[in-house]
Amino acid sequence: MTNLEKLNKIFCEVFSVEEAALNSEFNKDNVEGWDSVHQLSLTTSVEDEFDIMLDAVDILEFTSYDNAKQVLAKYEIEL
Amino acid sequence: MFLDLDKKERLRIAAIDDSGQSITYGEICDFSIEFAKHLPERALIFILSENQIGSLLGYTASLSNRIVPLIISAATEENLYNHLFDLYQPEYLWLPQTKAEGKKVLFSAWDYCLVKTGNQRPPMYEDLSLLLPTSGSTGSPKLVRHSYRNIEANADNVRRLFKLDGSEKAMAVLPMHYTMGLSVIASHLLAGATLLLSNRSLLDKGFWATLKEATSFTGVPYSYEILTKMRFTRMDLPNLKVITQGGGKLTESLWNTLAQYAHEKGKQFIATYGQSECTARMAYLPAEKAQEKVCSIGIAEPGGELSIVDDNGNETFEGEAQGEMVYRGENVTLGYATCREDLLKGDENHGIMHTGDLARRDVDGCYYIIGRLKRFLKIFGLRIGLDEVEQMIKAEYKTDCYCKGNDEKLIVLVTDARLQDVLPSFIEEKTHLFHQRIEIQVVKEILRNEAGKVINQ
Asked: ipTM strictly over 0.90?
C-alpha cells in the first residue's frame, strides 16, 4: 500500500466515507461531525500508521484532507 | 436579582465569547429589563443554547424575570427536539438567529431571537426555575427540575469551594445545556468574574489562544485526554491557576499526570463529583490531597453533607464504611419531569439525594466511587429496573409506591387499594413481565427513614 493509500484508508475509516469523497473540499467546515473526537482519532491513526509523533501545532492543523497531506510532508512522509 | 447580578460593578466584563465581543455586568442587568418587556413572568421558554453571549443573556434574563427556561443544545437532533417541543409545548423560544428563519421574531439581540410559538402557558410550580435534560441519557426527554434556591446554592457552594473572586477568568467551554457547564457559568457570575465562553473544539487553535488568558479550566475526562495528547503539561500557561474535572472518573494514569503537573508547576488540580440531580457539584478533593488520594472524589463541597448507607441500612457520616453514597444540601433538585403536567410538581427530594453510586469512605473521610448500585430483578431473563417501574406507576397513577422483589417475582407496595387489580396488567404492558409474577401489596403508608430509605420492606 502506498502512503497515500494508507492516509486515504485512515480518513475513510474515521469518517465512514468512500475514497471518492476525499478532495480539497473535505474539511472541518464541510464534513458533518468533524469534532475533536474525529480529529484526535485521525491524528492518532496517522501517528501509528506512519510511526511518527505529531507536534501539538500539527495536530491542530489536521482540519482538512489537504492540510493532513501538508503536515505529513513536514514529517518527510512522501505521498 | 438572580445571582446578585445587579450588585456587581457595572463596568466589569462578565463574558467574552468566540466572536471577540464582550458584555459587562451592567449590560446584563439592562438586558434583563429589556427582555421582560417582551414576555410575561412564569412563561415556559426553550433556550437553544450555544456558548455565546446571546445564549447566556437568555439564561440570565429568564432567571432574573421568573421565566422558566429549558436549556437544550442548539444542535439537538431534530426528532428529539420535536419530541421535547410536543411534550412540553413552550410558549416562547430563544434561539440563534440562524435558526429563526421563517419564524415570527418578537425581538432580537446578540445574534439571538425571541419567537412566540402560539402554545398556551402551562401551570408551573411557583418555585420552578430551570429545566435541564438529564445527563448521560442522550435522547431522553426526561428533565431535571430546579428551584431558584438550587441554582443559588450550587453557585455559592462552588464559589466557596474554589474561593472564586472577581479576578477570575474561567474557561467556559463545557456546553451551557450541560449541568456542569452551567455551574461554571453561575458560580463565576455570582463571584463577579469573567467567563471566556467558547463553542470551540479543544482541537481548535482559537481554544488554545483563549486558554492562555484563562485562570481556570473545567473539563470532563475526555477533555483531559485531549489536553494531555496536546502535551499541555509542557506549555507555558502562566495565568492558569486551577484545573478541575468532573463528569466521570479519570483513569489512574491520567490522574497522576494531572496531579504531578499541578505539583511541579504550582497549580491546583481539583477533582470534583456531581450529578445533574444535584445542580452539578457535590464533592471535591482539595488540591493538596491530589497526589495522596488518587482517584478520590474527596469530601462534600461547602454547604453539602455526604454519608454512606451500608447494606444493613445504617447511615454513617465518618470513619471507614462502604455502601450507597447519600448527599444532603440545598442544591438537591426538586425531581424529574417527564411530561408537561410534571412542571406543576413540587419538591420530591426534600434536600436528600440517594446517589445510586456505591462508595467507599477511607479513615480520613475521603470518598471513592467503586460502583453503581443497580436496582433490578431478573425474571425469565427479563431485566426489570425497579426505579423505572416505580416511575411509570407514579407517573400514571399519581401514587406513592415502592418496588422490591427477588428473581421469582416483582413486589409492588402501593398506598391506593384501587390499584390492586389494574397494576399487574399495566406493568405487564410496559415491561412484558408475565403478570402472575407480579404481586401487589397495599400498605397504609410507605415508611421512609431520615435518609429517605424505605423501611417497611
From this structure: no
